[in-house]
Structure formats: C-alpha cells, structure tokens
Amino acid sequence: MGLLERLRKEWFILGIVLVIAVARLEPGVGVKGGPLKPEITITYIAVSAIFFNSGLSLKTEELTSALMHVKLHLFVQIFTLVFFPTAIWVFLQLLSITPINEWLLKGLQTVGCMPPPVSSAVILTKAVGGNEAAAIFNSAFGSFLVFLEMLEQDCSKHY
User: Fold this and answer.
1) Among 54, 79, 128, 131, which residue is least crowded by beta carbons within 10 Å?
2) How many Å separate Cα 2 from the centre of its chain?
3) Residue 103: exposed, middle, or buried by beta-carbon count in 10 A (0-12, 13-18, 19+)?
4) Would you say 137 and 122 are in contact if contact means Cβ atoms under 8 Å apart?
C-alpha cells in the first residue's frame, strides 16, 4: 500500500491529529468567545450537521432494521451506562490511595458516568464501516436515558 493510498484511508485519524496539533500551537482560536465561537458552532451547528448528514445518508430500511436489534441495544446501553461507570468507580477506588488531586478524580468520575458524545459515536462508527443506524439510535437513546435520570434527580430534590 502506497503512502498516498494509506493517507486517504486514514484521513479521519490524520485529521484528528492535525486538529490537535493546531490547537496545541494556537489554543486561543478555539476558546469560548474566540474566533471559532465553539459555544455556538460545536453545541448547535456541528452536532446538528452530523445528525443531518447521517440522517440523509441512512435509508429508512436501515434505520428500521437497526431498531430491531434489541440485544445489541441492551448490550450497548448496559455497557455504557452500567459496566463502564462501575469499572471507572473501581479504578477510582484504586487511584484514591495515591496522591492524585481529588478534583481530577472527581472529573474522571463525572466523565465516566456520561454517555459517549453522539457526534463522536456516529463519526467513528461511520469511519470504521460499522452499523451507523445502530450507533445513531444508541447514542441518542443513551443521551435521552441520562437526561431522564438527571431530570429525575433534579425533581427529587424538590419533593
């Protein structure tokens, strides 16, 4: 496999590395209120564009077919929302006896309990040729479940 062919095949990973390198060299471009306005472009435009593009590229039959994979969806949701947070909790118990900053551990715990970002799950699944319809469903459904849990937690404070 030639170099140019390899670069074409690995365009997504190369793009991520390039963006990280540029961000390292010029971090002010992506800060809140900076020229890219990430509080608007990422929060609203990028995520919407990814969903729109994914939706356009999916056939209705693919989405319907993906919804029927109940075992897959159960596995993904249990792994994402039960197994992974539990594994992170065990890992944090081990790290808590080390001199690592307490706030770093709290941040890791928070991230470990969050579902994967919808945009990342869809893009990475598409990049490796996976079941994009199932990725869209599981990402959206997982985010919805976390939202319901947060809503329930917030509501329980008032009663």
Assistant:
1) 128
2) 32
3) exposed
4) no
Is the pTM higher than 0.70? The answer reads no
Helix, strand, coil proportions of the chain in percent (round to 5)? 80, 0, 20
CB-based contacts of 136, cutoff 8 Å, min separation 6: 51, 54, 55, 58, 63, 66, 118, 122
Structure tokens at 106: 């709290």
Extract the tokens encoding 80: 């994402």
Q: Which amino acid is at 60?
A: T
Q: How many CA atoms lie within 13 A of 151 on its CB side?
A: 6
pLDDT score at 75: 92
Tell me: pLDDT of 91 over 90: yes
Check residue 26 and give left, alpha or beta (phi > 0: left; psi -120 to 50: alpha): beta
